[in-house]
Amino acid sequence: MVGGRDVCFSIWDSTCPQAAELQGWVSEKQLRWADGFVVVYSICDRSSFHLARQQLQRIRQLKRRGSSEKAPVILVGNKRDLQHRRAVSSEEGRLLALSTNSGFFEISAAETYHGALVVFHELLDLVRDSRSSGKKAVGIRGIVRTMSAVFGRRRTE
Ligand SMILES: Nc1nc2c(ncn2[C@@H]2O[C@H](COP(=O)(O)OP(=O)(O)OP(=O)(O)O)[C@@H](O)[C@H]2O)c(=O)[nH]1
User: Fold this and answer.
1) Which of 51, 88, 102, 146 could form a disulfide bond with 14, CB atoms 3.0-4.6 angstroms apart?
2) Domain segments of the chain: what residues?
3) pLDDT tens-digit profile of 71-115?
4) Which Gene3D superfamilies match (predicted)?
5) Ligand 1 center to 99 CA (angstroms)
6) pTM above 0.95, yes or no
7) So what's the ipTM on this one?
8) Distance 66 CA to ligand 1 centre (A)
9) Which residues, other chains included, contact 116 with Cβ-Cβ below 8 Å and sequence gap of 6+?
């Protein structure tokens, strides 16, 4: 419920890529389908941060190659509760977001749902902004959420 109105998100949760299949991770089909992207890495896992960087670059490339797609992107550093295991600084995350024209949040999905809620509220605002500025003509069809970069590598922790 946002501003007294029900909002329905369709989320296309990408699978975690092996390096060799990275090119297929976010496909042109997904790009056309999505109204916005949430790219997630773990602040405890530097390799997931590198994958997030590659994903952001890929999304930008595909968008440039495509039509006038202006779907907003938000970069999320997850597992903020695990400060003692931090491997990626907040500054690095913020810089990457700045350099790719993305929003940025650090959250802990495990602690409460509030962080994720803030991310999706922001994404909704950005999608609405891009629509009202006439850069995006279609409705909310979905969100590609690339969560796999966060969890795919260290499932035993
Ligand atoms: N400490 C901590 N653990 C988390 C957090 N978010 C997720 N986890 C843990 O990370 C592990 C993987 O989480 P999942 O929700 O399965 O991740 P996923 O994105 O579905 O993973 P894939 O199926 O590989 O795409 C689980 O053990 C979660 O409890 C967090 O913010 N903090």
Assistant:
1) 146
2) 20-151
3) 899 999 999 999 999 999 999 999 999 999 999 999 999 999 999
4) P-loop containing nucleotide triphosphate hydrolases
5) 27
6) no
7) 0.91
8) 33
9) 107, 109
